[in-house]
Amino acid sequence: MTDNNSVSIKDLSLNFGSVNVLQTLNLDIKDGEFLVLLGSSGCGKSTLLNCIAGLLDISEGQIFIKGKNVTWEEPKDRGIGMVFQSYALYPQMSVEKNLSFGLKVAKVPQAEIDKRVARAAEILQIQPLLKRKPAELSGGQRQRVAIGRALVRDVDVFLFDEPLSNLDAKLRSELRVEIKRLHQSLKNTMIYVTHDQIEAMTLADRIAIMKSGIIQQLDDPTTIYNAPRNLFVAGFIGSPSMNFLRGELVEVGGKPAFVLNGVTFPLDGYGAGESLTPGRKVVLGVRPEHIKVNEGTIDIYEATVDIEEPMGADNLLWLKLAGQTISVRINGSRRFRPGTPVKLGFDMSLASLFDAGTELRI
């Protein structure tokens, strides 16, 4: 393990009976990094977080925190602070006592407790709430207190298990900004579990996308969005998700092209020319915002508007193209009635190609 890694996971596996929940995971998280574990329910992301926290015993492998092997250490001895999906506050205690309780149990001197509680309350802007009880707080305020309880422990690594999923959309957005500001201020290592791709894209330095206990791709948000490693990642990130057109590669005028139901798409600008062998079965992936509608000479494919979804700043069109349905994101001021014929242009430099068999990026 290198010195700049805050958390290192080596060959970690977890089995529940005959079920492999996590499969030989290796993951290095840098000091001060904000890493998001992203995936749908049941992919193993919360299970992995609980293994790091020491709440689950692993079947194989090792876990290091700040260079120390903590594989069999108790949670309290791992130097972590954890924020759960449920606020898990003591209802009979005030906010101040909720924040200080763990420190009192650990026999931290009272002067140090007061200092840490005051600092956490200032950072999270909950000073006016210190005398209230949890029942007198809103959901967002309770989650701030739950974060504050982890904050007062003054640890190197914070673990967040879907902390915003119980909040409404507006509060989620507000607290997401606060968590990002908190990370920029503290510069602690943070590992954050979510199924919400917007949280992942906006918060993370790097995202680990998981499926069936395996990390599918570990990269920064921009790379994951623009160069997904496989079909699963490409379809999971983006709303609406990437359009997938299944066809095969051909050669037109000595250059590679993609053909779908008799419609040919030149692949000018796509970067992997050496892999574009004619006859290869592939999936062409194009994001909705990378398709132009009625914008001049590049618009060479005929399509028909099926459904229009006005979304304010954007307008989402569902179109019929070469026998398939695709989605296109355009400026909200542009409107199209269902049944309207349109011409499309694809920016192939921003497209993705995947092998139809392996589903890996070409």
From TrEMBL:
Membrane topology term: Peripheral membrane protein
Entry keyword set: ATP-binding, Nucleotide-binding, Transport
One GO CC term on file: ATP-binding cassette (ABC) transporter complex, substrate-binding subunit-containing
Keyword Disulfide bond: no
A biological process from GO: carbohydrate transport
Domain (ABC transporter) ranges: 7-237
Locations listed in the record: Cell inner membrane
Domain of life: Bacteria
SUPFAM superfamilies listed in its UniProt record: MOP-like, P-loop containing nucleoside triphosphate hydrolases
InterPro entries: AAA+_ATPase (IPR003593), ABC_transporter-like_ATP-bd (IPR003439), ABC_transporter-like_CS (IPR017871), ABC_transpr_MalK-like (IPR015855), ABC_transpr_MalK/UgpC-like (IPR047641), Mo/tungstate-bd_C_term_dom (IPR008995), NA-bd_OB-fold (IPR012340), OB_MalK-like (IPR040582)
GO terms for MF: ABC-type transporter activity; ATP binding; ATP hydrolysis activity
One Pfam family of this chain: OB_MalK
Entry-linked PANTHER family: ABC TRANSPORTER ATP-BINDING PROTEIN, MALTODEXTRIN IMPORT ATP-BINDING PROTEIN MSMX
The family this protein is said to belong to: Belongs to the ABC transporter superfamily.
UniProt name for this protein: ABC transporter ATP-binding protein
Record organism: Metarhizobium album
